[in-house]
Design goal:
Blueprint (H helix, E strand, L loop, with lengths): L1 E5 L2 H13 L6 E6 L5 H12 L13 E4 L6 E5 L13 H6 L3 E5 L12 E8 L9 E8 L1 H17 L1
Parallel strand pairs: 2-5, 2-6, 4-5
Antiparallel strand pairs: 1-7, 3-4, 6-7
């Protein structure tokens, strides 16, 4: 497990960019953290690095946002409001089999049904100030590909600082 200090929204997006630079098709990224922890901010940097030109927005109310432009597709999901049979309306296996990256915010409700190789990021606020952008980012890789991805992204991010 690797821990990184993130001091601003720009740093969070820079880390997202580093993740995207080292991403490969079929990568799965799980984002955990309280509301406002920076999950979507990180995904914005990821999307921009892939070459997505339109704004990357939170999929909280739509469950899934698809971005099929750039270097590879990005499927951004948010299961915070997932209820009952909502997951049945999403063919997660189809998304995971596409030549893109799947990023899931609030994956706790479906984590048992996911593949065993994924990178989990846990974002934690460093202080309780409502306007603070300081975060602690924990990279928790599960599987060989996730181990390599976490190391590459961490090395890239630290080299850019």
């Amino acid at each position: 497990m690797t821990k990184l200090a993130i001091n601003s929204a720009a740093d969070m997006q820079a880390f997202g960019s580093a993740l995207a630079q080292s991403a490969q098709p079929h990568d799965l990224l799980l984002l955990k953290g309280d509301l406002g922890a920076g999950k979507t901010t990180m995904t914005q940097g990821f999307g921009r690095e892939l070459g997505i030109r339109r704004p990357v927005k939170s999929p909280t109310f739509t469950l899934v946002r698809e971005y099929r432009e750039g270097r590879m597709p990005l499927f951004h999901m948010d299961f915070y409001r997932l209820e009952g049979d909502d997951l049945a309306s999403i063919d997660l296996n189809d998304y995971l089999s596409e030549e893109g990256v799947v990023i899931i915010e609030w994956p706790q409700v479906i984590q048992a049904d996911l593949p065993s190789d994924f990178l989990e990021l846990v974002l934690t606020r460093v202080d309780d100030s409502w306007d603070s952008t300081k975060r602690l980012l924990e990279l928790r890789p599960h599987g060989q590909r996730a181990e390599a991805w976490a190391k590459q992204a961490s090395d890239l991010y630290q080299a850019q600082k």
